[in-house]
Design a protein that fits this description.
about 210 residues, alpha/beta, TIM Barrel, eight-stranded parallel barrel, two-stranded antiparallel sheet, about 25% strand, binds the ligand O=C(O)c1ccccc1NCC(=O)[C@H](O)[C@H](O)COP(=O)(O)O, EC 5.3.1.24, tryptophan biosynthesis, amino-acid biosynthesis, phosphoribosylanthranilate isomerase activity, isomerase
Length: about 210
């Protein structure tokens, strides 16, 4: 599975974490987040895709950040409509639409987004729009009705390695394309722990 490391904030730390060659690095453009990115992204190896994370922003603002930071993936973490997704998909960017799960999930809400995004991302529903730091019950995904590849997110840390390796062998993970990590690998909001991430990456069998 692919790996996305989200909530990058500090240039030196970004360069350090990029040395692990994750598939995606995520930058949060949401000024209410402690991980809000207001810096310059240092040069990265070409194979690492830059993901811009937005919460209910105007399409115009997203376009501007895409251009400024050369983002190739847009993650929509709020209540964005299928039409917003369609407009953004008409650029070259890949669109990830996020849905938050508590104990149950009504998968019918995905239907209008099927044709206007490239991936879904399933996160844990909590007080914050993202970065809540705890997992949801992944067995909910046993009822995933789609064939669209999805990112698994929400509170994933070192202590989830065994569960992840087990999950990757289950039917529920059939369309799981990537794992998204964030707060469980931080020394402070936005500052990622290289050694912890190294250990995580080396122990994932999926
Ligand atoms: O992390 C944030 O501060 C954040 C704020 C607003 C919208 C999205 C945010 N994070 C986006 C992510 O993709 C996180 O990786 C995802 O929510 C999981 O975070 P965590 O539970 O800390 O692993």
């Amino acid at each position: 599975m692919k790996l996305k490391i989200c909530g990058m904030k500090y240039p030196e730390n970004i360069t350090e974490i990029a040395s692990l060659q994750p598939d995606y690095l995520g930058f949060i453009f949401h000024n209410e987040s402690l991980r809000d990115f207001d810096n310059v992204i240092p040069a990265l190896p070409e194979q690492i895709q830059k993901v811009g994370v937005f919460v209910d922003e105007k399409v115009e603002f997203i376009y501007n950040q895409m251009k400024k930071h050369n983002l190739s993936v847009i993650q929509l973490h709020g209540h964005e409509s299928p039409e917003d997704c369609r407009l953004l998909q008409s650029t070259k960017a890949k669109i990830v639409k996020v849905f938050s799960i508590k104990d149950t999930f009504d998968f019918s809400v995905l239907a209008p987004y099927e044709s206007v995004c490239d991936y879904f991302l399933f996160d844990t529903k909590g007080k914050l729009p993202g970065g809540n730091g705890y997992t949801f019950d992944w067995s909910v995904l046993e009822n995933y009705p789609s064939t669209k590849p999805y990112f698994l997110s929400g509170g994933i840390g070192i202590n989830q390695i065994e569960n992840l390796n087990r999950f990757s062998e289950s039917e529920a993970s059939k369309y799981c394309y990537a794992i998204d990590v964030n707060s469980q690998f931080e020394m402070e909001p936005g500052l990622k722990d290289l050694e912890k991430l190294k250990e995580f990456k080396n122990n994932l069998s999926c």
